[in-house]
Specification:
Order of helices and strands of chain B: HHEHEHEEEEEEHEEEE
Shape of chain B: globular
Number of helices of chain B: 5
Chains: A alpha/beta (about 260), B alpha/beta (about 180), C alpha/beta (about 450)
CATH architecture of chain B: 3-Layer(aba) Sandwich
Strand content of chain C: 5-15%
Oligomer: heterotrimer
CATH architecture of one domain in chain C: 3-Layer(aba) Sandwich
Strand order of the largest sheet of chain B: 1-12-7-4-2-3
Distance between the termini of chain C: 54 Å
Number of strands of chain B: 12
Distance between the termini of chain B: 52 Å
CATH topology of one domain in chain C: Rossmann fold
Number of strands of chain C: 10
Structural class of chain B: alpha/beta
Radius of gyration of chain C: 25 Å
Shape of chain C: globular
Largest sheet of chain C: 6 strands, parallel
Structural class of chain C: alpha/beta
Largest interface: B-C, 65 and 89 residues
Helix content of chain B: 10-25%
CATH topology of chain B: Rossmann fold
C-alpha cells in the first residue's frame, strides 16, 4: 500500500478505459533535452490505455524557469509559444511533470490576468481523475524482481491539488514495495535557479532527503518531476550514494508487454 | 495626533467586503457531570488536577492568599500574606470550559488578578454549575471586566522544546468543583 | 591560479558559515513542532480546510475595513479608559513610549517587557536603555536573547538556534545560579531572577495578539505568565500593536485563539489568554492604573495599498518557518530582519521596500509548504514570485541567468530543435549557474533514447 492513500482509493481489479481519448503530449523541456525515455514511457502509458497521442513538434518549454527567477517578460514570451503550440485545441494536454502543469494552471493566470487552462493535466492526475485508473493494468510476462522504492512527492503538485495519485499507481505494481520516509512531505531542495544561487542550502535540503531515503532502506527514488530527480541524481553521483532515480512513468511503462 | 490622521488617510478606504458570519458550532447537550469529566481529563493532560475540599485544607497550611468569594465558601478570612510571599492562591472562577480544560476568571471587587498568577500553586474553588462545553459558549458570556482564561499550569518549551511547568505563573493547578 | 571570489546571496552566505549544532537545533525543534501541531489541528478542527478559509475571510474583512475598524477600536478603548496613541513610524512610536515612561517613572528604573515583535521592529529596548531605563525581557527565550546580546531567530521560539548547554553557560556567566543543563532548573533560575524585576518595575511593555474593534478589548496570549505579570504588576502598562492586529468582534476570538495555539505550538489553547478591558477600576484590588495602546503603522498602510497586502493577514504563529526547508537549514538570523522565515521573506521587503532587500525573496524553493500550513491561507509563494518580478523590473536584483539566449531558443520551434542538436557541442562550461551546480552535484548527462528521434522513427 502507498504510505498515504486516503484520497484516491485503489481497487483490486484493473480498470479498462473504454472511450478513446485524444490527448496532446507536452514533453517538457527537461525530457526534451535529457530524459527522452520519460517522454517515450508517457506515450506508451497513454496508448496502453487506448488514448490517441498527438505530439506537436513546435513545442519548447512552459516558461517556468524565467518565471520563477523573476524575469516575467521572458516568461511571457515563452508562454506565448506554448499557448500557440499546445493550448489552442480542445484536446486535453498531458505532461509528465506537475511543475509544468502548475506553471500553466497557476502561473499563466498571474502572467495574463485570469487566463485559465483547465484542460492541462499532470500525467498521474490524468490517469487517476480523467481515465479513472486506480490500479495499474500489468501486462508484461516478465515482471522485474521485487524492490524497495521511496516515492518523493514533488512540491508543485500542491499547487494543482495532487495528493497520492502517482504513488497509488506505482504502489499497485506487484514488484514495488513503497517505503515510508521521515519528513517525506519535505521539498527536495531543487527550486530551479535556487539550486545554484543558493547551492549550499539546496544541497543541504537534498542530502537530508537522501539520508532519510537510505535510512528507510530504499534503493530507488521515484518521483513525477524531472527537476527534483535531476537535482537528487546530481547529488547521488557526486556523493557516490547507493541510490538511483526514476520517473514514475518509466515504472508504469515497465509493466506493459512489449 | 498628526500621526492619527496621516495613518487613517493613508489606509485603503474600500470597506465594501461583506462580513462573513462565524457559524456557531453545534452545542453538545451534556450533563454537568459529563462536562466535569471531560474538563478533568483535559486538565490532567495539561498537568493540573481536580481536587477536593480536604485537599484544599492541606494546601492551605502554606502561606496563601484567598479571594473573597472562595473565603466565604471555605469559611475563612479573605486576603492573607502579602501577595509576593504567597505560595498558594485560592480563587473562584466565572466558568470552566470542558472542551479545552480552561478556566475564565474575571477581576472585580475582592478578586485580585495576582492571586491566580504569582503563587506556585493555584487552587480554584468554584460552584459545580459554572461549566460550559465549548469555548464559544464561554465567550458568549464574557464579563466586561478584564478577564484571564487559564488553561493548565504555566509552562515553557523555549529550551530545546523540552516542556517545563511553572515558569512565572503557578506550576500546579487544583480545581475543586463544589 | 586564484579562483574568482563568488558573491553568494546573503541567506546562502549565512548558511555557509552556520555551525552544524545550530542547524541541528533549528531542524530538530521545527520537525517536532510541525508533527505535534498537525495532530492537534486535525483533532481540534474536524474540517480544518473550512476553518482556515473562514479565518482567512475574517482577515480579508479586517483588511478591507481597516480604517473603520481602527476608528471603532480607538473609540471603544477610550471608553474603557485606555489611552490611545498613533505612531506612523518607528521614531514616532519610540518617542510616544519614551514620553509615557518619563511621566510614569521620571527617575528611570526597571521596565519589564513581555515578548513583542512590534517592539523588536522599532528597536525599542536599545532606545530606552540608552536613556537610562533598565529594560528586562521576561519571556524565558527573550531573556536569553537579551543577556547574550543576540536577536530572536524565530517569531515564536526566539532561541530555537541554541541548545541547553549554551543557555547553561550564559546563565552561569550572568551569575544566575550554579551551572546546570536541566531546562527545569534553568527556568527556575530565570524565575527567581525575574521575580525581583517584576516586584520593582513601575512600567510593563507588551505587544498585542488581537485587538477587538467591537469592545476595545486587548487580547494577549502566552504560556509562561511573564506577559500577565508584566501587564498586571507595574502601575503602567504600555501595549504596542501593528495596526493590522484587529478582529471585528469577540465572537471571532474562539476560532482565532484555537487556530493560533494549534498552529504555533500544537496546544489546544495557550495557557494564559489575557483579555484586557482597561486599567484597574476603582473597586478592583490590583492591576495597572494606566493602560496605553500604541497603534503602529511603520509601513503597513503602504503595504495595504500594494500587491503584498495579504501578508498583513498573518497572526504570527510561526508555522511557515517551522515547515520551511530553507528556514530549517539556515535559522531565522539568515533573513537579517526581525521578521524571518517565509513570512519575513515577504513582509520584510514589503515594509522596507524592494530596494532594501532585493534578493530575500529568492531564498526559497517555492515548495508551497508555507501556504499549506498557514492558518489564514496567505499565498506566500505567489508573493515571493511577485517580489522577484518587482526586483527584476526595477533592476535592483541580480539576474542569475541572462534569459535572452534561452528566450531566443524557446520562442521558436525551429530554433529550439536546432538548439537541441547543437547542445552537446555547446560550451555548457560557460553556463552562469554551472559552478553553483557542480560544487555539490555531478552535471546531468543525456540518458537513453531521444524522444524526438523515437517519435519521428515510429510514424
Amino acid at each position: 500500500m502507498p504510505p498515504d492513500s486516503n484520497v484516491a482509493k485503489k481497487s483490486d481489479s484493473p480498470v479498462r478505459v473504454e472511450a478513446r481519448h485524444r490527448v496532446r503530449l507536452m514533453l517538457t523541456c527537461l525530457c526534451d533535452i535529457y530524459f527522452g525515455e520519460v517522454g517515450i514511457s508517457t506515450v506508451k502509458i497513454l496508448e496502453h490505455l487506448n488514448c490517441e497521442v498527438l505530439f506537436d513538434k513546435e513545442q519548447t518549454c512552459c516558461g517556468q524557469p524565467p518565471y520563477n527567477a523573476g524575469d516575467w517578460s521572458a516568461a511571457r514570451q515563452v508562454a506565448g509559444l506554448t499557448m500557440r503550440a499546445l493550448l489552442e485545441s480542445e484536446d486535453p494536454v498531458v505532461m509528465p511533470s506537475a511543475s509544468c502543469a502548475a506553471m500553466i494552471r497557476e502561473g499563466y493566470p498571474v502572467l495574463y490576468e485570469g487566463m485559465m487552462h483547465p484542460e492541462v493535466f499532470e500525467l498521474g492526475e490524468f490517469l487517476v481523475h480523467q481515465l479513472k485508473i486506480r490500479s495499474w493494468p500489468v501486462t508484461t510476462a516478465n515482471p522485474p524482481a521485487k524492490r524497495r522504492v521511496a516515492f518523493h512527492r514533488a512540491c508543485h503538485g500542491r499547487g494543482i491539488g495532487l495528493t497520492n495519485e502517482q504513488e497509488m499507481l506505482v504502489g499497485s505494481l506487484p514488484w514495488i514495495q513503497l517505503v515510508r520516509i521521515a519528513q517525506g512531505e519535505q521539498c527536495c531542495g531543487f527550486g530551479g535557479a535556487f539550486c545554484a544561487t543558493h547551492g549550499a542550502i539546496s544541497a543541504g535540503i537534498g542530502m537530508e532527503k537522501l539520508h532519510n531515503i537510505m535510512k528507510a532502506g530504499a534503493e530507488e527514488i521515484v518521483s513525477g518531476d524531472m527537476g527534483c530527480l535531476l537535482h537528487l541524481d546530481g547529488l547521488i553521483k557526486k556523493n557516490k550514494l547507493p541510490l538511483r532515480t526514476r520517473h514514475f512513468a518509466e515504472l508504469l511503462a515497465e509493466a506493459i508487454a512489449p | 495626533m498628526a500621526d492619527r490622521d496621516d495613518i487613517l488617510n493613508a489606509l485603503p478606504q474600500t470597506g465594501k467586503k461583506a462580513r462573513v458570519p462565524v457559524p456557531a458550532p453545534p452545542l453538545p447537550s451534556l450533563t454537568s457531570d459529563a462536562m466535569w469529566q471531560i474538563f478533568g481529563a483535559r486538565l490532567e493532560e495539561l498537568g493540573g488536577r481536580l481536587g477536593t475540599l480536604e485537599d484544599v485544607e492541606v494546601i492551605l497550611s502554606r502561606p496563601h492568599v484567598i479571594d473573597q468569594e472562595s473565603a466565604t465558601r471555605l469559611g475563612r478570612q479573605p486576603g492573607g500574606v502579602p501577595i509576593w510571599e504567597a505560595e498558594v492562591g485560592v480563587t473562584t472562577a466565572d466558568l470552566a470550559v470542558a472542551e479545552i480544560g480552561s478556566l475564565l476568571i474575571s477581576t472585580g471587587p475582592g478578586r485580585p488578578r495576582m492571586a491566580s498568577l504569582s503563587p506556585v500553586v493555584h487552587v480554584v474553588v468554584m460552584p459545580k454549575e459554572r461549566i460550559v462545553a465549548t469555548l464559544e459558549e464561554a465567550f458568549a458570556r464574557l464579563s466586561d471586566r478584564s478577564t484571564v482564561m487559564i488553561t493548565g499550569p504555566s509552562r515553557t518549551a523555549d529550551i530545546e522544546h523540552v516542556l517545563v511547568r511553572g515558569v512565572h505563573g503557578p506550576g500546579d493547578i487544583v480545581v475543586v468543583p463544589v | 591560479m586564484k579562483a574568482k571570489p563568488v558573491n553568494h546571496p546573503a541567506v546562502e552566505a549565512f548558511a555557509r558559515q552556520l555551525a552544524e549544532t545550530t542547524r541541528d537545533s533549528v531542524r530538530a525543534t521545527s520537525v517536532k513542532v510541525i508533527e505535534s501541531r498537525k495532530a492537534r489541528l486535525v483533532d481540534a478542527f474536524p474540517d480544518l480546510e473550512a476553518t482556515r478559509t473562514q479565518a482567512s475571510q475574517i482577515k480579508d474583512f479586517v483588511l478591507a475595513n481597516i480604517s473603520n475598524l481602527l476608528s471603532q477600536l480607538e473609540m471603544k478603548c477610550r471608553l474603557n479608559g485606555v489611552q490611545v496613541h498613533w505612531a506612523k513610524d518607528a521614531e514616532s512610536a519610540r518617542k510616544i513610549i519614551l514620553d509615557i515612561c518619563k511621566e510614569a517613572a521620571p527617575d528611570g528604573g526597571t521596565i519589564v517587557k513581555a515578548k513583542s515583535m512590534a517592539t523588536e521592529e522599532i528597536h525599542l529596548n536599545k532606545h530606552l536603555i540608552d536613556v537610562g531605563y533598565n529594560v528586562v525581557e521576561t519571556d524565558l527565550g527573550e531573556f536569553v536573547v537579551q543577556i547574550d546580546n543576540d536577536t530572536p531567530s524565530h517569531i515564536v521560539a526566539p532561541i530555537i538556534h541554541k541548545n541547553r548547554r549554551e543557555v547553561a553557560k550564559s546563565f552561569e556567566r550572568e551569575g544566575l545560579g550554579p551551572y546546570t543543563e536541566s531546562p527545569e532548573q534553568l527556568a527556575a533560575q530565570a524565575r527567581k531572577h525575574l521575580r525581583e524585576r517584576f516586584v520593582e518595575a513601575k512600567i510593563g511593555i507588551s505587544g498585542v495578539n488581537f485587538a477587538i474593534a467591537e469592545s476595545g478589548r486587548l487580547v494577549l496570549v502566552e504560556n509562561e505568565g511573564n506577559s500577565r505579570l508584566s501587564t498586571t504588576a507595574p502601575d503602567t502598562h504600555i501595549a504596542i500593536m501593528g495596526l493590522e492586529k484587529l478582529l471585528p468582534s469577540e465572537a471571532d476570538l474562539p476560532l482565532f485563539l484555537k487556530l493560533l495555539a494549534g498552529s504555533a505550538t500544537g496546544q489546544r489553547m495557550t495557557v494564559y489568554t489575557h483579555l484586557i478591558s482597561g486599567p484597574r477600576r476603582k473597586d478592583e484590588d490590583d492591576g495597572p492604573t494606566a493602560v496605553h495602546l500604541v497603534i503602529l503603522d511603520n509601513g503597513r498602510s503602504k503595504v495595504l495599498n500594494g500587491p503584498y497586502k495579504d501578508i498583513l493577514k498573518c497572526i504570527r504563529c510561526g508555522a511557515c518557518s517551522y515547515v520551511c526547508p530553507v528556514y530549517r537549514q539556515v535559522s531565522g538570523h539568515a533573513y537579517s530582519h526581525v521578521y524571518s522565515g517565509p513570512l519575513g521573506a515577504v513582509l520584510a521587503p514589503a515594509l522596507e521596500g524592494i530596494e532594501a532587500l532585493p534578493e530575500l525573496a529568492k531564498a526559497s524553493t517555492l515548495c508551497g509548504a508555507c501556504e499549506e500550513v498557514c492558518p489564514v491561507k496567505i499565498p506566500i509563494p505567489r508573493m515571493l514570485l511577485q517580489l522577484r518580478d518587482e526586483a527584476m523590473r526595477k533592476g535592483v536584483a541580480e539576474n542569475p541567468i541572462p534569459w535572452t539566449l534561452f528566450t531566443f531558443g524557446a520562442t521558436s520551434g525551429l530554433r529550439w530543435r536546432t538548439g537541441l542538436k547543437m547542445l552537446p557541442m555547446a560550451r555548457i562550461a560557460k553556463h552562469p549557474l554551472k559552478d553553483g551546480w557542480t560544487e555539490f552535484r555531478e552535471l546531468p548527462k543525456k540518458e537513453g533514447r531521444d524522444f524526438r528521434k523515437w517519435w519521428n522513427g515510429r510514424s
